[in-house]
Amino acid sequence: MKSWLRQHLFAISDAFTHLFKAPGGFALNVLVVAIALALPFGGLTLIENVRPVSEQLAVEPEISIFMALDAARDKTAALAKPIDAVLQQHHSSAKVVFIPREDALISLKNKTGMDDALTTLGQNPLPDAYVLKLAGFHDAPDAARIDTIAADLKALPGVDTVQVDSEWVKRLAALLGILRLVLMFLAATLAVVVVAVVFNTVRLQVLTQREEIAVAKLVGATDAFIHRPFYYTGALLGLCAGGLALGAVALGLQPLNQAIAEFARLYASEFRLLPLNWIASLALLAISAGLGLVGALLSVRRHLARLA
Amino acid sequence: MTGPSHSMIEFNQVSKKYTRDVVALRDITLTVNKGDLIFLAGPSGAGKTTLLNLIAAIERPSSGTLTVSGANVGKLKSSGLPYLRRNLGLILQQQKLLQDRSVLANVMLPLLVTGATRAEAEKRAQAALDKVGLLDKAATDPQALSGGEQQRVSIARAIVNRPQIILADEPTANLDRDNANKVLDALKSFHAAGVTCLISTHDEQFLNSANRVVFLDQGQIVDHWQNSAVGGAA
Which of A101, A189, B80, B203 is the most exposed place for a label (fewest CB within 10 A)? Predict the structure, then answer.
């Protein structure tokens, strides 16, 4: 076996030996760090779940044109050509679907289960409608073009309301952007907390092992030999805390998903929050271990330099 | 001890000052040859411990030149210290044994820091404990041993790496005559095997065993004699 590998294995075993001497203290530190990590991990899980929804909808913006309730069917049907003209005027193309008010009513009844409520109304409350699925709209300038097209469509005869369905998606995207910034700030702050906790844990270990370090130095131990077990302790603390935080977030999703399922059912959706995939989870574990390592590095450099 | 002598340690006008008024060693000039058994004698505060600490680079000279195994201790970088100390066997007045580890684990430590395998370290540590007559105590915790036994464990730890030089600071202090003799016998056996030994002591009874005795007082060498009856490259 290579000497360096043997030295690292010795350092890992030494780190474990010292951890097992005070497992309670280590477990408490893991818990503190895990609590600090669980918050950004949870936020990231939320964003990762919502992001695909917002992105998927944003690339296919829809414009719904609702006719006036008293608009005649033949006039409504004749509107197809002016709609096409407006789109051409704006160098746009769209898949245009006409939805008669009768079909809309059937669809509403099927999707929402509000059959009884709609029957009591006596007459169909829904207007005829056109749904335009616009192609080639991806970014902010495109969004501005959609607003112009919507304004022109609103001016067509018999049109009561024009609704740009991507509006709420834009708001959601903006909200996610803010949330992402908040999360980054939170993550940075809590990373400092994690580093500080590991720093203090390693400081206490250095003080506890002061005698051992002095003896090791006297018998010819290099700085690397003395430092390594502390590095592994820090990384191990971060890793265990990261694993615990990921587990806690995954467990926390269960009750949350029950509430979300109730809500999503109202919109005929099966949306539910999923834990992070294994690549993201591994990345977070690596970051957690890295933060632990940074805390240990800073602590060892500061406190062992004082002992030297 | 036979063979051509050459210096292992050279003090050249070495002084150690802690403050302007506190001077531990003044202008020490001394050459220690390979295979010497040197006793450092003198009253408390004479500078014996400081002299040994300088050789082990636990402290650095304030002035002068100190060379140990060819390395200039005053100019040695901290990264070079471990490699210097691996050639030294240190036996301190306070044994500095790790109380939470077994006797065997204590003796294995100097080997493990050099990257030896556990199996190899264990084998050599057992051999070292055997040499000081404590192999049967290998699994024992140090606090279960008497003062003399603990001192012999620290001797085993000092010689396990097969050092070229052994530095012993008052190794028989606080020991009864019987244990002190055992410790001294162990040290003399390593000297007989060719190891250079520097031993500081208050105990004048041991000075007859030395091939050289250096008397220190107030940080200066006040006397220095050689005993041709004892082997060594004086």
Answer: A189
Cβ atoms of B180 and B148 within 8 Å: the answer is: yes
What average pLDDT does the structure give for chain A? 85
Give me the pLDDT at residue A259, please. Answer: 84
Query: What is the tens place of the pLDDT at every residue in B192-207?
Result: 888 999 999 877 777 7
Six token digits for residue B157: 């730890």
Contact B113 A308 (CB under 8 A): no
- The CATH architecture of the domain made up of B34-48+84-226 is 3-Layer(aba) Sandwich (3.40)
A303 and A177, same structural domain? Answer: yes
The yes-or-no verdict on residue A284 having pLDDT over 60 is: yes
User: CB–CB of A220 and B58 under 8 A?
Assistant: no
> In sequence order, what DSSP letters do the residues of A208-242 get, joined into one string?
HTHHHHHHHHHTT--HHHHHHHHHHHHHHHHHHHH
pLDDT of residue B228: 63
List pLDDT tens digits, range A161-173: 998 876 666 677 7
Q: What are the chain A neighbours of B115 within 8 Å (beta carbons)?
A: 3, 6-7
pTM of model > 0.80: no
Tokens of B93: 């007045």
ipTM above 0.90, yes or no: no
Same-domain status, A50 and A177? yes
Collect all residues of chain A within an 8 Å Cβ-Cβ radius of residue B96: 211, 214-215, 218
- Domain with A118 in it: what CATH number? 3.30.70.3040
Are residues A159 and A122 located together in one domain of the fold?
yes
Alpha helix locations (H) across chain B?
A: 48-55, 81-85, 103-112, 118-131, 147-159, 177-192
User: What are the residue ranges spanned by the domains of chain B?
Assistant: 34-48+84-226
Chain A residues within an 8 Å CB radius of B85: 217-220
